[in-house]
What we know:
Two copies of one chain form a homodimer. By secondary structure, chain A is an alpha+beta fold.
Amino acid sequence: MDIKESITVFDALSQEARLRAFRLLVQAGPDGLSAGAISEELGTPQNTLSFHLSHLSHAGIVSSRREGRSIIYLANVDMMCELIGFLVEDCCSREIANIRQDKKKGCSIIELANYCCKPKKKAAANG
Amino acid sequence: MDIKESITVFDALSQEARLRAFRLLVQAGPDGLSAGAISEELGTPQNTLSFHLSHLSHAGIVSSRREGRSIIYLANVDMMCELIGFLVEDCCSREIANIRQDKKKGCSIIELANYCCKPKKKAAANG
DNA sequence: CCTAAATTTCCATGTATCTAGAAATATGGA
DNA sequence: TCCATATTTCTAGATACATGGAAATTTAGG
């Protein structure tokens, strides 16, 4: 993910209706949710929500498929993971964070030093 | 971090000058950078940049201290980690991501399933 | 074809944001 | 005090975004 793309994603997530819609979609998982269902859940008129869904879609963090008369939206969790990677990237050079692959578990592992995330505690004699 | 706060942070990071300034500050680490240094690096007029730094500061992802005539800005990496936690939160319920504390290493560990971050591979007989 | 349902596109209005010139504020040194 | 430096605040105009009513599009069923 480059800086332009990440700006597009941040912009997409920087509006309440959109962020709440995205979170609903992440929670909904692979089944996704119809535009109408999201509209009803958020209490946002369908045409307004459509504008926002289109915004999310353009940013690439949601995708959609038609199912009969409904259009089902899906969170693109992959993109979200890329965004997290982008955020953590700069930290790696400061020994604040570390990203590696665990092939046994089949996952990416991000380690964030606690002196970064828990600054209230005294730092250990470690760096 | 709640949804309102995260919107404020996403909004702060959704503009090129601000995101680039923030990344410079992350790279700069605890020493930080003066407003003038950032302005010069980005090629953005000081008053324009001041507007953006104030935006970042209001969102809480940078802080500042005065040093003589300069004002030194610092990335609030803690806030960035909270933001990552907020993003990952919804995934956890879907077994896509997981956050835990490793007390021996003194860090937070985020595990992101590869079927999330590496969708090009075939998924195992798992879902 | 006709009607209903689900969603999007078009459009106008109001609001917020971005930008940079000019003026103001804060600091350091002679 | 006076001057130079560093940064912010004020201000105005241009641009972009959010909202929702009305019309258009797409699909389903008779």
